[in-house]
UniProtKB/TrEMBL annotation:
Protein name per Swiss-Prot or TrEMBL: 3-isopropylmalate dehydrogenase
Stretches assigned to the Isopropylmalate dehydrogenase-like domain: 4-353
Encoding gene (name): leuB
Phylogenetic lineage: Bacteria, Pseudomonadati, Pseudomonadota, Gammaproteobacteria, Oceanospirillales
Keywords on record: Amino-acid biosynthesis, Branched-chain amino acid biosynthesis, Cytoplasm, Leucine biosynthesis, Magnesium, Manganese, Metal-binding, NAD, Oxidoreductase
Organism: Marinomonas piezotolerans
Site (Important for catalysis): 141, 192
């Protein structure tokens, strides 16, 4: 049976970078005989302009019927004045909630060729390849009750609820262990079990799920130590799994270890393994239409899609190797250019990745 991919170019640099990523997808599709079919739909500001909604019903229908979704980025100043309910970002959030994309996979990979781009010493980060698995639809960002109330003495008090059910923990644990099986088979679960009961349960369920994965090694670390270790010796990690808030913070810190936002892909998965794949960066309106955006994060998102939703590890590896080869050749888009490198445009970078795939 053929596999269906929905392509959502979105706004700003979205269409430019997605165009290159789709060329790469088409290339591996024929090279590896994958039988993938893809079609495009509107999301975000582009969808609002055309239909009055940032997430048209037809886009959602197509998304539900697909095995995976490839997204560029949404948003831009053109739509900043719109009512919150129709802002481009609403389209993205609507996709996440409608498809129940609870597992956010954020790799932090630093190609040795780009080690100088990091703010850390090259020997600490060169060759870094870690994956942060963040729970995306629960925890303190969604827990009830929440709000700001006035106490009897007239003072106001803000409050939120940090809550995770066993089933929510179990499914994110499985997502992390499954991802680890595609990598180096080590999961480090991040908690604050010395203070927070919710993460005592988190830790307990992680141990329980680990028994289903005897081939994967589980360890635990407190979140404050994890933050220190990420900047002290980040290469010690393979997969880190954590809740929504800790993951939000740790994944941004890990992203910055790599020094270039134009290189980082991401995935959001649901229980069926269906996923939405997108670069970590936004729509970069400041450079949209100039042909200088870095398409590599989106191209690497295609590799993630092949690995995590479509079960095509060899094709995923081939794309990642092609990207590495292109960097070896000294080719760089402007955002990652350095002394001695050759600066190329968005489409030239796409050409180079295609050539490396065919080589
Ligand atoms: P941004 O990531 O779009 O841009 C930050 C900086 O990084 C800019 O200087 C930009 O030129 C540069 N940059 C980003 N991607 C690049 C690439 N591929 N190649 C070269 N340079 C790149 O973040 P922002 O400026 O805060 O947000 C711009 C718009 O994107 C906003 O409307 C925001 O809401 C939206 N946004 C969307 C998503 C998403 O769709 N998932 C995520 C973040 C921001």
């Amino acid at each position: 049976m053929s596999k269906k991919v929905l392509v959502l170019p979105g706004d700003g640099i979205g269409p430019e970078i997605v165009e290159q990523a789709v060329r790469v997808l088409d290339q591996v599709n024929s090279q590896f005989n994958l039988g993938i079919e893809h079609e495009s739909a509107l999301l975000g500001g582009a969808a609002y302009d055309e239909t009055g909604s940032p997430l048209p019903d037809v886009t959602l229908e197509k998304a539900k019927a697909s095995d995976a979704i490839l997204l560029g980025a949404v948003g831009g100043p053109k739509w900043d004045g719109l009512d919150m309910s129709v802002r481009p970002e609403k389209g993205l959030l609507g996709m996440r909630s409608n498809l129940e994309l609870f597992s956010n996979l954020r790799p932090a990979i630093l190609y040795p060729q780009l080690a100088d781009a990091s703010s850390l010493k090259p020997e600490i980060v060169a060759g870094l390849d870690i994956l942060i698995v963040r729970e995306l639809t629960g925890g303190i960002y969604f827990g009830q009750p929440r709000g700001i109330r006035t106490l009897e003495n007239g003072e106001r008090e803000g409050f939120n609820t940090y809550v995770y059910s066993e089933s929510e923990i179990r499914r994110i644990a499985r997502s992390a262990f499954d991802a680890a099986r595609q990598r180096n088979k080590r999961v480090c679960s991040i908690d604050k079990s010395n203070v927070l009961e919710v993460t005592v349960l988190w830790k307990e369920i992680m141990e329980e799920v680990a028994k289903e994965y005897p081939d994967v090694e589980l360890s635990h670390m407190l979140v404050d130590n994890a933050a220190m270790q990420l900047v002290r010796a980040p290469k010690q990690f393979d997969v880190m799994v954590t809740g929504n808030m800790f993951g939000d913070i740790l994944s941004d810190a890990a992203a910055m270890l790599t020094g270039s936002i134009g290189m980082l892909p991401s995935a959001s998965l649901n229980e069926k393994g269906q996923g939405m794949y997108e670069p970590c960066h936004g729509s970069a309106p400041d450079i949209a239409g100039k042909g200088i955006a870095n398409p590599l994060a989106t191209i690497l998102s295609v590799a993630m899609m092949l690995r995590y939703s479509l079960g095509e590890k060899d094709a995923a590896n081939a794309i990642e190797k092609a990207v590495s080869d292109v960097l070896d050749q000294g080719l760089r888009t402007a955002d990652i250019a350095s002394e001695g490198s050759k600066t190329v445009s968005t489409s030239q970078m796409g050409d180079a990745v295609l050539a490396a795939l065919k080589a």
